[in-house]
Every structure is written in C-alpha cells, then in structure tokens.
Amino acid sequence: MSTAMGEPAALTKRQSDALNTYNNSVSNFESILGQRRAQINSNQRLPNLPGQALYLARNNMMSAYKDLTDALPSKIGGPNKYGIPPAYLNADNEPLLDEYRRLFDLMQAPPVNAQKSDTPFKDVVDLGTAIARAKGLDATNAEAAGRISLGLFFAETNGNQNIGNARSNRYKGSLQTGPAEDQNGRKKWDAIKKSIAVFDPALSLRDDKEEARVGNLDHRLNHWTAVRDALMNAHADIFPHVPAIVKTLPNPIDQMKLFELIQIIPSPTRSALGSRNLVDYRISDPKVMAYLRNNSIFTFGQADRARTSATFREILDAMWLFNDKFERALSKSDEIKARPKG
Questions:
Q1: Whole-number Cα distances in Å, 221 to 42, 75, 228, 275
Q2: pLDDT at 7
Q3: pTM of the model
Q4: Among 143, 185, 252, 324, which residue is least crowded by beta carbons within 10 Å?
Q5: Dihedral sign for Cα atoms in the order 17, 20, 25, 26
Q6: CA neighbours closer than 13 Å in the CB half-sphere of residue 314
Q7: Which among 325, 341, 335, 339 has a CA at the least distance from the CA of 160?
C-alpha cells in the first residue's frame, strides 16, 4: 500500500535510526492491517479488543514519522486529505488510513438488534438544543449547544449511530457511554423531561415513542436514548457555560473540542471552566496527561510525549486529529439549520 523511504547518503546516526524506525513502523502497520483484513474476510473469530493493535500500530507509524521529520525536516511532505499536519503523516500513507477506517467500520458495526434513526444528525441537534433550553439558555446559545452536541457525535463515532467499540468492551452506542453513565443520564433526563414538554411537546412525544420502542433493550442501542442519556450524563450541566465559552472561544471547532475534553478529562475541564482564564489554565498532573495521550493528544513523537504540562489553549491546538470530524459536524449542522422548519 505504501512505499518505504530509502536512506539518502550522509545521514547522522540519529537520522538513520529514525528512518529505520519509521520504515519498520510502516511495515508493521501494513502487516497488522493485512492480518485483520484476512481474519474478517475469512470469518475468523477476532481477538478481544481487535482494534487495539491497529490503533497502536497507527500511532507508532505517526510517532515514528514525527521523530523522522524532527530529525530530517526535509522529509516533511505535502498536505493529506485527513488534515493531519504533514510533519505527522506522509501523504503516501493515506491508503493505510483508508483501510484502517474501513476495518474499524466493520469491527464496530451496530448489533443486529440496534434501533437506528432515520434522522440521526437532526436528533442530536434537537436533543442538545432542547436540553440547553431546559438549562436556561436563550435560542442563540441553545443552538450553539445543539451544534456542539453534533460535534460530540462525530468525535465519538465519526457520525455512525449505535456502534460498538473495537478498543473497549465497556463503551458502546452513538455517544460511546458505559452502563453507569447511561443510567445516570436516564435519571437526569427524567428530572427535566416535564419542563422540556412545556416548550417542545413534539420532542417529548418523540421521546415517549423511543422509550416504548427500546423497552428493556440496552438504551445505548437506541440512537435517540443513547444520545439523550449521554448528553444528560456528562454535558447538560456544562451547557449553562455555553455563553461564556462562545465568548472565550469564538471558533465553533474550539467549542466542540472543549466539550470533547469533558469526555476525556472531565474534572480538569470543569476546573478550567471555573477559572478566571480558561485558555491559560495549565494541566500538569501526569495521570491527566496520560488520559490525553490515550486519546491522540500529545501522542505522536518523542517531543510531544515528553511534555509534562500544557495549557488548555495548547491542548485545543493539539487536538488536530479531531479537526476533520468537527468540520464535518459543522457542515452537517449548517445543513440542518438551512432546512425548512416543520
């Protein structure tokens, strides 16, 4: 799928080692992709957490390339369709990431009993907007909350509803929640549903229908209830901060990134929101930095992994792997907004 880089003349040992490590990482990624594809095509039983080895191999390839371009800046090539900074990805390896995504789509396909929606994107926007209104936001800021909610859907599942998780046996569904998180969200929804019914009876009626439909099935396998419960569990209490967040972070992509951090590092993000200066709030706890790295932030290359602290502005800037997803969410949100009402 890709072409390994040859070794030019007169390299230092550091440069030569970085080149060899990179070439080996590409070969290893290709090998694991091919192995998993063969297993799927032949209907073999997959190992537990079949996506983890793929994820680590992808990260190793990107890390090795960043180390190579740090040692040999001349190796930085042109842009790639994934919007990954060129110092982290050789565009020649786009086909490897294409196959990576295809395999995850197969491994994380929704179970046969999952209950899909014909309007999955609008559902997310509607639920996020209604919850924000119930939390006291005006129409403009509630609309921003709905847009941010759609960003979370793309961040967690690439916009695919009811999926599993090839890297975890705990998380599933349209917003990738665990059982306890889903239960907590359901309780919180019950507490505000009557208030939502007053200003949005149509949404309340839809909720009644989805509750009857899901019955005793895991609520995470119904798109509507999965999104509803996830937003109530982790994000509804943050929606009152939306006006201040929009003022501090006028870029809608940054707003989505901040709410995604509620998923990844909830306590530090809440502390940052409560501080006097969100963007300059600094994280230095090694455990928190590890959580960030496990979610592709400061993950790639020795220089990034050596960081012991970061401000929220630096964290948001380092979330470039989310940019493509959030840009698609923003486009979809604009499309929904432009549709006639009713």
A1: 27, 45, 12, 37
A2: 56
A3: 0.94
A4: 324
A5: positive
A6: 14
A7: 325
